[in-house]
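User: quick one, sequence for these tokens?
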């Protein structure tokens, strides 16, 4: 029975936190991993003959506290885009999306290495694929699920219906009765003059969803200009728990706004460490450019005002490499390499408003 002094939000938080402290052995048991002689874990119940867990490194990602939510969050999380993008070679010269079985392997391996944050964006598959994977792994209650509502904050009653519908649809796709985080995000097409900045109805809708126990924490962000972020912190920073900002070695405008976010106690979720893969295209990642993805994430994690770096992954090798950023310090030589790279590889002025020193033309 719920203690009358405990709010629904705190009750949910306690439920989540009490489940978060399990040991690796409990994890393996719960997720259907057996342990064979020699302590090497095997994954049972999946079609894939290989064990996702035996492919992991045995190392764990570190945790940070997500601002005023108090959530302990893995400093590297999995994004949603890679479940939607067709970027896995299909063997016939084309590309396909990762299958559910591949997603299960990647997510199981990630969880085994400590990842507890899963993001999703607009495309339905971004929620349905990890939703199904977490169900198969019986892992929903052990991880933080974040949804993004593509939302223009117009300050009209219809804002409420938009948020209710979007959230209900995502709850079904994630196969869950609550999500931990709901982020209001504008789209790239709205950039740079995005947002209408009347959140009155949006906040009413979020409050109702919180009362119903359907969402725990709320946030906003994504494709705002640095100026709009600062304005948003001022206007809405007391209400929201989290902001989400693109940040990578090329797009460093976030550095200007992070202190203001932290002043409001906001958790900071960063996205796009590789500029959607653009910084890694046409690189010799198995040769002279080896370790580049790890270093690009390590660069983001060096900033202690950031709570988590969210990246897309398409293969189990990418999972292993990206997570190793949590225990690999960026050496001066490797920093120099990525700083040089920052000036290249991105077509035209894409995402230019996120660069340091960017000005309206
Ligand atoms: N509107 C919004 O709110 C919004 C917008 C953007 C992003 N996001 C969130 O932020 C997340 C991260 O952004 P993102 O996925 O666009 O960009 P990203 O993390 O910068 O790039 C992801 C891509 O980089 C490549 N990659 C990743 N690890 C690699 C490795 N070890 N080696 C080589 N290539 C690697 C993969 O592409 P290949 O497999 O093709 O190489 C992958 O799809 C998204 O998934 C999404 O959840 C939200």
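Assistant:
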């Amino acid at each position: 029975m719920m203690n009358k002094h405990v709010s629904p939000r705190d009750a949910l938080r306690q439920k989540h936190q009490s489940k978060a402290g399990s040991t690796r052995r409990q994890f393996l048991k719960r997720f259907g991993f057996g342990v064979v002689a020699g302590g090497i874990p095997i994954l049972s119940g999946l079609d894939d003959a290989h064990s996702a867990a035996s492919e992991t490194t045995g190392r764990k990602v570190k945790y940070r506290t997500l601002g005023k939510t108090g959530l302990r969050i893995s400093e590297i999380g999995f994004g949603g885009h890679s479940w939607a993008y067709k970027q896995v070679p299909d063997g016939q010269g084309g590309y396909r999306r990762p299958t559910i079985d591949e997603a299960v392997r990647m997510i199981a391996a990630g969880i085994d290495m400590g990842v507890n944050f899963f993001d999703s964006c607009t495309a339905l598959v971004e929620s349905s694929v990890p939703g199904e994977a977490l169900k198969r792994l019986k892992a929903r209650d052990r991880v933080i699920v974040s949804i993004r509502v593509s939302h223009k904050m117009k300050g009209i009653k219809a804002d409420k219906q938009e948020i209710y519908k979007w959230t209900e649809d995502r709850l079904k796709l994630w196969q869950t009765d609550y999500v931990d985080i709901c982020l209001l995000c504008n789209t790239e097409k709205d950039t740079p003059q995005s947002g209408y900045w009347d959140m009155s109805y949006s906040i009413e809708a979020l409050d109702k969803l919180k009362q119903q126990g359907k969402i725990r924490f709320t946030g906003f962000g994504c494709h705002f200009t640095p100026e709009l972020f600062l304005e948003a912190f001022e206007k809405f920073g007391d209400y929201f728990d989290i902001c989400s900002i693109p940040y990578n070695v090329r797009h460093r405008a976030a550095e200007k706004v992070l202190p203001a976010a932290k002043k409001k106690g906001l958790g900071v979720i960063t996205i796009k460490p590789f500029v959607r893969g653009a910084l890694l295209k046409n690189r010799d990642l198995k040769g002279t450019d080896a370790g580049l993805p790890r270093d690009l994430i390590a660069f983001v994690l060096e900033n202690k005002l950031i709570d988590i770096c969210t990246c897309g992954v398409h293969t189990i090798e990418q999972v292993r490499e990206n997570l190793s950023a949590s225990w690999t310090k960026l050496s001066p030589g490797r920093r120099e390499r990525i700083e040089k790279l920052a000036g290249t590889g991105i077509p035209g002025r894409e995402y230019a408003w996120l660069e340091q020193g960017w000005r309206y033309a």
